[in-house]
Amino acid sequence: MFKTIDLFAGAGGLSLGFKQTGRFELVAAAEINPNAQATYKENIPTDPDNFKFIDNVIGCDFRALSEELGGIEIVIGGPPCQGFSNANRQKNQLINMNNALVKEYFRAIKEIRPIAFVMENVSMLESDTHRFYDSHNDHDEIEALRTQGYAIPTRDDEIFISKDNFIGFDMLDIAMHIETVESIILPNELYVLIRVLNKNKNNKKRLPNFLQKNKNQLIKQIDKYIEMEDNQDSHKIRICEMLQIIKAVLPEAEALRECAELSSLVELQKNLISIREIYQNRLIGDYKKDTDNNVVFATKSYSVIDYINAILGNQYIQKGATLNAEWFGVPQERRRHIIIGLRKDDEKEIEISFPTESVCDSHYTVADAIMDLAEYPVSLEKTCDDIPYTEDQLSEYAREMRLDSTTVKNHIATKTTETAMERFKAIEQGKNFHSLDAELKTTYSDPTRTQNTIYLRLDPNAPSGTVVNVRKSMWIHPTLDRAVTVREAARLQSFPDKFKFIGTKDSQYQQVGNAVPPKLARGIADIILGLIQ
């Protein structure tokens, strides 16, 4: 048995696939989301009393953890990576902790020195547009690697902040003084209300609903901000004036739609948040005006793959490939990029290779995955009783999902509004929101921008598309006019019925959508076994 740790484990899809081989013992995991953590603890650890759970990878002493566990031989996981640089002068790219999390993953590799590691969902690592920014947080480390002969080429980059003199604000001067930035960023509760109001102002159905639920709270927050004792400088006076105008037009939908101050205030706050994040992430560079008179932060960046190669030195052979979950018996078209690293312990050359086509004799459809559940009662609450199986006609895939279980768990769905039900009834198998008549699209301000995955009625005779949060996407059962349940989404992801999800309804849907399909994970585990044996 190879002792294994899963970093950024989520609900445990990757861990489950490795566990199913019978060759990997999950001895530790890291996951910060409490609901996903609870689901993982419920399903994965074989020896819960001796299992180590890390709430936060940042600051974790992985070397000491490995020694405590008698050595960790395999590291798996998928650090979030939405925060990479994609310097774009037309759109703010917020910087967040995700950059640091990718670096934490490779710090773990360096400290643990496993036989092998797996990193998933990172196709952008070899991209030339998703990069790390130069930061005081690790600048000295990067320079030290360069002096040791590891090439980490940099290039000049610019982070777009704002147009200069935006609605009367000298953005260059503001950006250079973080104390000014902090003083004029709205409190988060007020900013969220203002932002959602701006998003819904052109939606004739959502706007009244929003105002009915939130108008009093919005007015209260505006008044609280205006009455603050330190609202005496020119910046704050201007923001207070904008808030007064927004407050005055709140009851009038038409006036609200034409209120320029609303969209301007939201845009200003986004710009300020970008500046704050540059300071918080301690980026190295300078604010300046570009040739179009925009305020930008001039810095340097370097590619993620160059960083990985340098931080690991010449200790690991690495190779990446994009794999399709359907190749491994998952009833779903889902592509995940996988990087495998293998420690070089001797002079023997080992070739890391990946499948380029299906490795399964059987291919499954949506019907194979979920149609045996069609007549089981569905709960609309966040929890439901386990439902004992009845005597059903089962596909090969359904029989596999029922192994070691006697009940259906998490067979819960979102409640359906009257409008949503009208859409459900009008959409045919394999069709989506775009197939609806115009009168059924009126709640969307711009229906043409709706994604093809919204209001998708599944085609029973084909694999599903990529399973995300199917509650938010409003996926529809192939033959019933209702939403796809958590269990049905889990079946499409290849989670067996004995696997129980914990948390709020939306959290359960999100855990399922975020997970690596266990059957894909098992295929990756088999590749690792072939290499290390």
Commentary on this structure:
The chain is α/β, with parallel strands linked by helices. The chain folds into 3 domains: 218 residues, Rossmann fold (3-Layer(aba) Sandwich); 116 residues; 151 residues, DNA Methylase, subunit A, domain 2 (DNA Methylase, Chain A, domain 2, Alpha-Beta Complex). It has 20 helices and 13 strands. It has a 7-stranded mixed sheet, with helices on both faces. Strands 6, 7, 8 and 9 form a 4-stranded antiparallel sheet that branches. α1 crosses α20, α7 crosses α12 and α8 packs across α12. The longest helix has 21 residues. It starts with a strand and ends with a helix. About 2% of the residues have low confidence.
* Annotated CATH topology of the largest domain: Rossmann fold
The shape, in one word, is: globular
Alpha-carbon Rg, integer: 26 Å
The mean pLDDT is 90
CATH architecture of the largest domain: 3-Layer(aba) Sandwich
For this structure, what is the CATH homologous superfamily of the largest domain? Answer: Vaccinia Virus protein VP39
Measured by DSSP, the beta-strand proportion falls in 5-15%
Structural class of the helices, strands and pairings? Answer: alpha/beta
Straight-line N-to-C gap: 12 Å
Broad CATH class of the largest domain: Alpha Beta
Most strands sheet:
7 strands, mixed
Count of spatially separate domains: 3
**Record field, number of beta strands:** 13
* Order of strands, widest sheet: 3-2-1-4-5-11-10
Could you estimate the helical fraction of the residues in percent? 25-40%
Uncertain runs: 83-94
Count every helix, treating DSSP H or I runs of 4 or more residues as helices.
Answer: 20
